[in-house]
Amino acid sequence: MPTSIKDREILRELAKQVAEIAALPVQQETIKLWKALNGLKPIRPMVMIDQIAWHEMDVNGELAFTTEEGFCRGMEGHLRRILYLWKHLRADMVVQPFISIHKAIGGGGFGVGVIEETSVTDPRNGVVGHRYIDQMSTEEDIMKIQMPKISYSEEATKQSLEKAHEIFDGILEVREQGALPGFAPWDQIVQWRGTNNMILDLIDRPNFMHKIISRVTDGYLSMLDQYEEMGLLGYGQDTIHCTGAFTDELPAPGFDPQRPRAKDLWTSGMAQIFSTVSPAMHKEFEIDYAAKWYARFGLGYYGCCEPLDDKIDIIRELPHVRKISMSPWVDLEKGAERIGRDFVFSRKPTPAFLAWDTWKPEEVEADLRETKDMCDRYGCPLEFILKDISTVHYEPERLWEWSDIAMRVAKS
Questions:
Q1: Taking the alpha carbons of 294, 298, 304, 307 in that order, is the dihedral positive or negative?
Q2: Which end of the chain has fewer CB atoms within 10 angstroms, the N or the C?
Q3: Model confidence pTM above 0.90
Q4: pLDDT(266) > 80
C-alpha cells in the first residue's frame, strides 16, 4: 500500500531537519572523540543518555504523532526523538545522515515463555515489577530449552526498504541493517526460574545450573552460526549497549558487507542477577561460558547494573573486551584502580537523582566530578552513560539540566 501524501510530507519535513543536523561538522568531530576513547586514547570523557522515560518527556507537542499509517508512525517516532535529543539532551550523540531499516529476521527464541506476576505503579510507564514463576525445577525441564531456529523474510525486508526509499530518497540515505547480537543468558534464565530459585541452585545444585547455562550457551552459539551462514549479521554499529561504538579497529580484514562476520562487530553481555555472587562463582557460571561468545567478536562491552569493581580480574579473561560497566553500586576507587588504562571505565551514574521529590543539580555535579577525579587519578578512559531512567518526576527539564552538567564536567 503506497504511503499517503500527508504522511510522506510529514516524514520528509522531519527528515530534512535531521539531514541538516547530520551535515554539521560537529558530527565528525564527535565521532573522532568517540574513536579516541574507544581506542583507549581519550581526549576527554564522553557522555550519552539512553533508555529514557519517554512518556514523561513531551513538551509543546515535540513528540506528538501526526502520521497515521503504522510504518510511518514508527519512522516518525524515531525522527522526532532524534530531534528532541539534539535540542534538549545532545551530550555526545551523533546524528547520522541515514535511516536504518532492519532485516525481517525471526526466530531466536528458546521455546520457553515467561510466566510472571507484575506490579504497576504508573500505568503510563512501561517499567514494572516482576515476580517470575519457576518453570525449570527438574533435569527433565531443561529439555524445554530449544535450540533457536533463525528465519528471514526477504520479501518483508524488501517491502520495508521500498517504502523507506519512497519516503526518504533525496533527503536521507536508506540503509539495510542486520542482527547485532549480544550475550545475556542469565537475564533469560532468571525469567524462567525466578531470582531466589536460581541463586540458591547455584549453591545447592551447581551441576544442574551448569546444565542449564551450557544448553543456553549452545543455543546462543548456534544462533550466531546461523546469522553468519545466512548473511544476516549487521555491521557499522554507532552504539553498543547505550555507548558510542565508533572505532577504526572494525571491521576486521577481509570484511564483506554482503556477509558480515561476528569479528566485524562489537558485542555486549551481562549477568545482572549475579550482583551478589562471588567472583569465583561469577567466573564459573558466567565468564567461562561468555568467553566462547566474546572470542567470536571484534570488540566487546561487558556488564550493566551488576557491580563489577571486585571482578575486573575475571573480566580480563573475556577476549576482546574494551569497555566495562561501572554501575551506581561500585566502589569507585577500587574499580578505577583495577581498570586503569586497560579498558574504558563506563560509568553509569545513578538515575535516582532525577526521581527525587526535589531536584538537586549540585549533587548531580558532585557525583560526576567524584567519578572524573577518580578516573583522572588512575588514568582511566571514562564515559558517563546515563540509562535506566524510569522517571524524571514528570519534569523533563531535570534531564536537560543533567545533560548540561555532565558535559560541563566532561569538558572541565
A1: positive
A2: N
A3: yes
A4: yes
